[in-house]
Design goal:
Blueprint (H helix, E strand, L loop, with lengths): L13 H13 L8 H12 L7 H7 L4 H13 L3 E5 L7 E5 L1 H7 L5 H8 L3 H21 L14 E4 L2 E4 L4 E2 L23
Antiparallel strand pairs: 1-2, 3-4, 4-5
Helix pairs in contact: 2-4, 3-4
Bound molecules: iron/sulfur cluster.
């Protein structure tokens, strides 16, 4: 008689695991900001110039413009973000992280998750980044939401002799912005990665 177990094989649901990790990683403990405020502060610290607007942040955070504006306003009032007028469109506002904001980011609760991920073998980190990037692209398409990503994986990015040229902005990309989050990112069909 076979002794093989008839119990179904159980496997953690990946979607549940990702949501659990996100919640656990973002749990703020005794830090003075809410998880929405932390997300906004991180976003504005890592976004390129054309993406540092409240409406781009609302897309990134998959929230309403009203809610995103409230979060931004609270960070401005705390002195962690500063508004400046958009040079080409006087009606829109650009947000910059202040020195106090950068100081606050040194207490980012997400750092523990970053450390746990850094303990994975480099090839596993690369595989995880590629897989999650592909899922982000597919999910954004399903929800008709913009995909955020960086120049290296963007189909608008062209390598020229004098640097990286952005076909969307029609100009050379500032080298400091190559790894910045961009709302105009379009995934290269070869890499299909996003954030
Ligand atoms: S190349 Fe793509 S990601 Fe880079 S600035 Fe242009 S649109 Fe944004």
């Amino acid at each position: 008689m076979s002794t093989q177990s008839t119990r179904p094989e159980t496997q953690t649901d990946l979607a549940d695991l990702i949501v659990h990790l996100a919640r656990l990683g973002q749990s703020t403990g005794t830090t003075p900001l809410t998880s929405a405020q932390w997300t906004a502060l991180r976003y504005f610290a890592h976004a390129n110039r054309q993406s540092r607007t409240p409406s781009a942040f609302s897309c990134f955070h998959a929230t309403t413009r009203g809610t995103a504006s409230q979060t931004v306003k609270s960070l401005v009032e705390l002195g962690l973000l500063a508004r400046q007028t958009h040079e080409s469109d006087g009606r829109s506002t650009l947000l910059d992280v202040t020195a106090a904001g950068h100081e606050m980011l040194r207490r980012d609760p997400l750092e523990d998750l970053r450390k746990a991920l850094a303990r994975l073998a480099p090839q596993n980190q690369r595989a995880l980044a590629a897989s999650l990037g592909q899922v982000a692209v597919d999910l954004a398409r399903l929800r008709a939401a913009p995909v955020f990503g960086t120049c290296v994986d963007c189909r608008h990015c062209q390598i020229e002799t004098d640097g990286h040229f952005c076909q969307q902005a029609q100009g050379l990309v500032n080298p400091n912005d190559m790894a910045a989050i961009c709302i105009n990112f379009q995934p290269d069909s070869a890499s299909r990665s996003g954030l």
